[in-house]
Write a structure and sequence with these properties.
Radius of gyration: 27 Å
Strand order of the largest sheet: 3-10-11-17-14-13-12
Number of helices: 16
Number of strands: 24
Largest sheet: 7 strands, mixed
Structural class: alpha+beta
Strand content: 25-35%
Bound molecules: adenosine-5'-triphosphate
Oligomer: single chain
Distance between the termini: 24 Å
Length: about 500
């Protein structure tokens, strides 16, 4: 695995996985572009998630809902009122910080002073932050007295009172900008699932329990985007809302925790690198009955959230439904006089309408990609003393599946065979196959190690029966080089497609 984030950032840029957004105009903070290899890796991760969670189950449906949502959706979901992070400004240079990030980044003795000042124990960091938010005037004094430093200037800051900063991007809809014509870019894909609950039930005749899966962009105006693609303002999520009978929710929560851990393992993230955080009740989001955060051990950052698996009770459908008072909701919801739909489904035993409970596994695509890259990253010293960087992706995630290399790019007998092999292997539908004639063979191998191509197929003079000292039996065969073992094997062209298909399965 990678030792540092820096190592990954530099490889990503060098090999075309990820670029800074709007780079030619100096970049835009919190936005990244996925390059030729990044888009393949990202698509492969999303496809693996979709396969496991939609195709390989019998209780799931898919959805692709719109990014811009009616403001009522995000009002009744609770986002307008509560989707905010605590922000403090440094009055000396007008720089803003997310309060918890600011404090977390201080030296240990400063964190101790902040904790003591606000009357909490430094070992319970969330409690320290919660106390600072609760007592803003005191918080400002405590931050100053503790000597909290500004990350930009490095100097002790003059801190304002923390106040909530809503992270939703707002936009105008239609040609007239007035009081009523605004909407939001969704801050999570989940709300599109809740608002389509009835549509999906009515069009598929689903009964409980069942789930809806969605992959798509979400937008959060993060106060301090940082750590490469870990915290961005335009992100992508892979989310499931699993609807179940109230009372069965705890079992389903456990089911999804197990399933999701197994999925991460199948993507090359060992179980030992993920800690399960059973989020303490006082830190739970307003909708959550219980949440497990999966904390992956990122290089440089340490354990940070890669996925949250929440038991959202009947909060969401209960918030978006009409006739709330008739539905015996368990969650505390605010009054909804705007919805025109009754979001219930027949209870499988009694047939009486019920608002289901929801289990939500919500993973970030960008954070997944960073973890997959980090685990795949390997630095090896070869027998001849040379060092190589190799990305040991699981084959189904590799951006390029096979590189086909003609040993001499000007010999038509060789290039014709190589091109025909490329076309045949591409036709297997396994993903990208590259015709690679851009340099000498050693360089090609090194480049493909660095981007994680599992197999390089070389067409040489033996292949076309023209190696003077050669072995006639090698005619019609190619060399296949294995990325991880470096073993080279002669395979008959006639058997190559089957061989590759078997290996990449
Ligand atoms: P954090 O505490 O790190 O801000 P969160 O608890 O707000 O994250 P959720 O609202 O639970 O995150 O979102 C679900 C998932 O979406 C996260 O587990 C993460 O993988 C991803 N995600 C959330 N915010 C971002 C972001 N700014 N950049 C990249 N991925 C994100």
């Amino acid at each position: 695995p990678a030792n540092s984030m820096e190592e990954l950032v530099s490889l990503c840029k060098r090999r075309g996985f990820i670029f800074q957004g709007s780079e030619i105009y100096g970049g835009l903070q919190g936005f990244y572009d996925y390059g030729p290899l990044g888009v393949e890796l990202k698509n492969n991760i999303k496809a693996a998630w979709w396969r496991a969670n939609v195709y390989e189950r019998d209780d799931m449906e898919g959805l692709d809902s719109s990014i811009i949502m009616h403001r009522m959706v995000l009002r009744h979901s609770g986002h307008e009122a509560t989707f905010s992070d605590p922000m403090v400004d440094n009055k000396k240079n007008n720089k803003r910080y997310r309060l918890d990030h600011l404090v977390k980044d201080q030296k240990a003795d400063v964190i101790e002073k902040v904790a003591a000042g606000i009357g909490e124990d430094a070992s319970n960091f969330p409690a320290v932050v919660a106390a600072l938010i609760k007592q803003p005037a005191k918080a400002s004094e405590v931050l100053k007295a503790a000597g909290v430093r500004d990350a930009f200037s490095g100097e002790v800051g003059d801190w304002t009172e923390p106040k909530p900063f809503n992270m939703m991007f707002k936009t105008t809809i239609g040609p007239v900008a007035d009081e009523e014509s605004y909407g939001y870019l969704r801050p999570e894909t989940a709300q599109g699932i809740f608002t389509n609950f009835k549509n999906v039930v009515d069009s598929t005749s689903r009964r409980l329990p069942f789930g809806i899966a969605q992959i798509g962009k979400a937008f959060r105006n993060e106060i301090t985007p940082r750590n490469f693609i870990f915290r961005v303002r335009e992100l992508e999520q892979m989310e499931i809302e699993f609807f179940c009978v109230p009372g069965t929710d705890e079992d389903w929560h456990q089911h999804w925790l197990d399933k999701r851990l197994a999925w991460w393992e199948a993507q090359g993230i060992p179980r030992s690198k993920i800690e399960i955080l059973d989020v303490p009740p006082e830190d739970l989001a307003h909708y959550s009955k219980r949440t497990y955060d999966l904390m992956y051990d990122y290089p440089t950052l340490g354990h940070e959230e890669i996925e949250g698996i929440a038991n959202r009770s009947d909060y969401d459908l209960g918030s978006h439904t009409k006739s709330q008072s008739e539905l015996n909701l368990v969650a505390t919801v605010s009054e909804n006089n705007d919805s025109i739909a009754r979001l219930t489904i027949p209870h499988p035993d009694t047939n009486k309408p019920v608002v289901p409970f929801v289990i939500e596994p919500s993973a970030g695509v960008d954070r997944a990609l960073l973890a997959v890259l980090s685990e795949a990253f390997t630095k090896e010293t070869l027998e001849n003393g040379n060092e190589r960087i190799v990305l040991k992706f699981k084959p189904h995630l590799a951006p390029i599946k096979v590189a086909v290399i003609p040993l001499a790019r000007n010999r038509e007998e060789i290039t014709t065979v190589a091109k025909a092999i490329k076309t045949e292997l591409q036709g297997l539908g396994l993903g990208r196959v590259l015709y690679e004639d851009s340099g000498n063979i050693g360089k090609a191998y090194r480049r493909h190690d660095e981007v994680g191509t599992p197999y390089c197929v070389t067409v040489d003079f033996d292949t076309i029966g023209q190696n003077e000292s050669g072995d006639a039996a090698l005619k019609g065969t190619v060399t296949v080089r294995d990325r991880d073992t470096l073993a080279q094997e002669r395979v008959k062209i006639s058997e190559l497609a089957g061989w590759i298909r078997e290996k990449l399965r």
